[in-house]
Specification:
Elements lengths: L3 E3 L5 E4 L2 H19 L7 E7 L3 H17 L2 E7 L5 H13 L5 E4 L9 H7 L11 H9 L8 H12 L8 E5 L6 H10 L3 E5 L6 H7 L2 E4 L17 E4 L3 E2 L5 E2 L4 H4 L5 E3 L5 H19 L1
Parallel strand pairs: 2-12, 3-4, 3-5, 6-7, 6-8, 8-9, 9-12
Antiparallel strand pairs: 1-2, 10-11
Helix pairs in contact: 1-10, 3-4, 6-7, 6-10
Bound molecules: NADP nicotinamide-adenine-dinucleotide phosphate.
NADP nicotinamide-adenine-dinucleotide phosphate binds next to α10.
């Protein structure tokens, strides 16, 4: 994949490749692990997976591979899909109390019969590397960086920072209003002095709004929804959406064929935000370990 493509009016478009950002984050992690090894313990991620959903298994494989390459230990607690809320909370409690475990990840979404609100408050906030506990989410909304951020919004922020995009005073449109992506991401952007507009399925004239923005961050989950009519030649576009297109191919919200070369910067799918998300998780496991 070329990094630059010819843009309208002869400008070059930059592809914001996640692999470069990830490489940088991982190097930072390696350095920190090396320095802190004399604490006598390795950072250790405890994973709790309920059932065997294929997307959870595939994410788990990628996490285990990344942890192993970085020197982060892992323990996977695989639970039966019919476990009840109390049973799941008991397993979380064991990881909370295990001094060897520095970070805990519970795969979500959980089965429908599980009371997710009770599960969220069961996790020790100091080990909550996926920002599940309300206390860590609250810190994001307060601009307090002592907690853990949700990994996907943080990955989008890291991409912008790595490629030198200054957010102060920029008009940024976020197309998503969920607690997993849009709301925390909007708070992080605000913290960097951006002017933020949040759009959703009831937003009128979406293209008018995105066309006025300097930066558009999308997480609709609708393959190839955005063509070039949504953007201007100097738009910066971060695509968080992941879904399958009509051919069954992995696709972002942005129609790459129509948009490529017609904006200033674009993060591709695959190869963009998704590839940075796991590195952010690793980084937060090391953060948790350093704080013990
Ligand atoms: P979600 O719960 O389905 O939320 C989708 C959001 O898009 C909602 O806020 C929805 O508005 C909005 N929306 C839907 N159709 C719209 C339209 N036509 N115009 C404007 N807004 C529209 O999904 P999610 O869990 O937040 O995830 C969103 C996407 O991000 C998915 O593709 C998911 O796979 C991807 N994702 C990627 C990563 C990663 O690591 N890269 C991680 C998490 C999620 P309403 O609120 O009005 O319904």
């Amino acid at each position: 994949m070329k990094i630059f493509k010819m843009c309208e009016r002869g400008k070059l478009m930059k592809l914001l490749k996640g692999s470069e950002v990830s490489k940088d984050i991982k190097q930072g992690i390696r350095n920190r692990i090396k320095v802190l090894e004399d604490k006598g313990r390795q950072p250790h991620l405890g994973i709790i997976r309920v059932g065997s959903d294929p997307s959870d298994i595939s994410y788990e494989k990628s996490i285990l591979k990344n942890c192993s390459s970085l020197g982060i230990q892992t323990r996977v607690n695989e639970l039966k899909s019919d476990i009840d809320t109390a049973g799941l909370i008991e397993e979380i409690r064991k990881f909370n109390e295990d001094r060897a475990i520095s970070g805990i990840l519970v795969f979500r979404p959980l089965p429908k019969h599980i009371d997710e609100e009770r599960v969220r408050i069961a996790i020790n906030p100091a080990k909550d590397v996926d920002c599940m506990h309300p206390l860590n989410l609250e810190k994001i909304f307060e601009g307090d960086s002592t907690g853990f951020a949700p990994c996907t919004p943080k990955a989008a922020m890291e991409i912008l920072s790595y490629y030198g995009v200054d957010l102060a005073g920029k008009d940024v449109v976020v197309v998503n209003r969920t607690m997993v992506v849009g709301k925390p991401l909007s708070m992080m952007l605000l913290e960097k002095d951006a002017t933020v507009t949040i759009c959703h399925s009831r937003t009128k004239n979406l293209a008018d709004i995105t066309n006025r923005a300097d930066i558009v961050i999308t997480a609709l989950g609708k393959a190839k929804f955005f063509d070039d009519s949504f953007f201007k030649p100097d738009s910066i576009v971060i695509d968080i959406g992941i879904s399958l297109d009509s051919q069954g191919k992995l696709s972002g919200d942005v129609d790459m064929e129509k948009v490529e070369g017609r904006v200033k910067m674009l993060s591709p799918v695959p190869g963009g935000v998704g590839s940075v998300t796991t590195s952010i998780l690793m980084k937060q496991v090391v953060d948790a370990w350093e704080r013990i």
